[in-house]
Amino acid sequence: MSQDVSPPPPSVTETERDELRRQGILLTSLQELYTWGNSHSVWPLNFGLACCAIEMIAASMAKFDIARFGSEVFRPSPRQADLLIVSGTVTKKMAPQVIRLWNQMPEPKYCIAMGACAISGGPFKQGYNVLKGIDRFIPVDIYIPGCPPRPEALLHGLVQLQKKIQGFKLTGPDAPRHLRDDQPCNCPVPEFGEHDLEPPANPAVWTAPPAIVRKD
Amino acid sequence: METPAEIRDRLLARFPGAEISVVTNPGIAAQHSLLLGAAHARAIAEFLRDDPTLRLDQCSNVTGIDWPEKEIVETTNISTPDPANPAAPPTVVEQKTNRLQPGFLEVVYHLYSITHRHGPVIFRLRTGNRTDQATVPSLTPVWRSCEFQEREVFDLFGVTFVGHPDLRRILMWDEFKDHPMRRDYVEPDDYEWEPTPHGAVLEKTKAHYPTPPTPAAVAPVKAAAP
Q: Which residues constitute the domain of residue B14?
């Protein structure tokens, strides 16, 4: 992992903290408290598209139990959800509805692209109705590869998201999208064109991968 | 259950003048099918559903096939004997004629009987051509399960079903203009780089991304002496 997602080093050392905690005094910072609450109560939206949704359901059931990570309930309404787990192939016909759901979610909101189809179109990438990855239109925080990824992989992705949230700064240019005034939280919804979606991608969120010259 | 030939004979006795023929399937499964003309298709379908021996009450599958127009080259050898020397071998002239076999769209129905537990009986309907005469009668009034499947064939092949209660696209959006399962469908150009392209995708890679440097530009590597 190239990105450092651990919380910032505190000004009080851990030994001093332990000493104080033994005396009954809890020392923390506003950033730690805020991100602790934010990361440990991420409620997903009741949203599954294809086969990866079955693995997401399995992760929410007794054996793997996503509730012990804070995702206690899957909210049926996007107005009450924090996390959009895009699980399954996103067809071009369904893509505007996914983006509308994303727009209806209030900030702070996060997106996990679960499975190969949500990341890049997956095994059906050359299909006539397949969107080559949901990150063409909405900003994705965590990508979980797999076809489908096991429920443990989804839980690992959720833990990675929690670590990412715990690394958020509350102020300054490094603050996340929902704590800044200059970044929009809505993504434009594409129209149905005659041969493809109009526009085929959101340029603010996605650019084509760079050209790589092959040796052969 | 009756063979397709026997069903054809019974249908011709019941509907004299109808266009019915057997299309043999050379595969191992030997699922031969009946080719029906559009004029009597609806009446024949009702007969197949209501006949006490067949009672084909379930239409389990409706699918489409695109037969594009084909150029057929026929070679004929004309041998003319030499009039001066009859014992000599005749001169053989090869003559090639090109003809264009027109294309059409085909709709294939698979029928089963739940009452008698037999099947499948397969029949095909063909359109006039692939452009302005791409219509066949709809069999949704006969079997309700054809409703969505005929919509799929309309969406992906462009076959118009006359008499369908709600003929609109089902998999693609309504504003879409093409018919994706036709042989001449060109998909939109939204290619992005892939790690191991091959086949048709490799052609797109070469069109989108620059060509690699030629071997002369690369310094030759001398083999190490053992």
A: 4-208
